[in-house]
Amino acid sequence: MTVQDVSELFKISWGTVKSIDKEYLQKHYSKPVLKNVEFIAIDEFAFQKGHKYQTVVYDLKAGRVIYVGQGRAEESLDKFWKRLCHSGAKIQAVAMDMWLPYFNAVINNIPEAKIVFDRFHIFKLMNETMDEIRRALYHEETFLNKRSVIKGIRWLLLKSNKNLNDEKNERKQLEQALQINQPLAEAYYLKEELGLLWSKNTRDEAEEFLTSWATRAWATTIQPLRQFVKTLLGHRTGILNWFDFRISTGPLEGFILKANRFAINHA
Question: Looking at the predicted structure, is the pLDDT value of residue 70 above 70?
Answer without folding.
Answer: yes
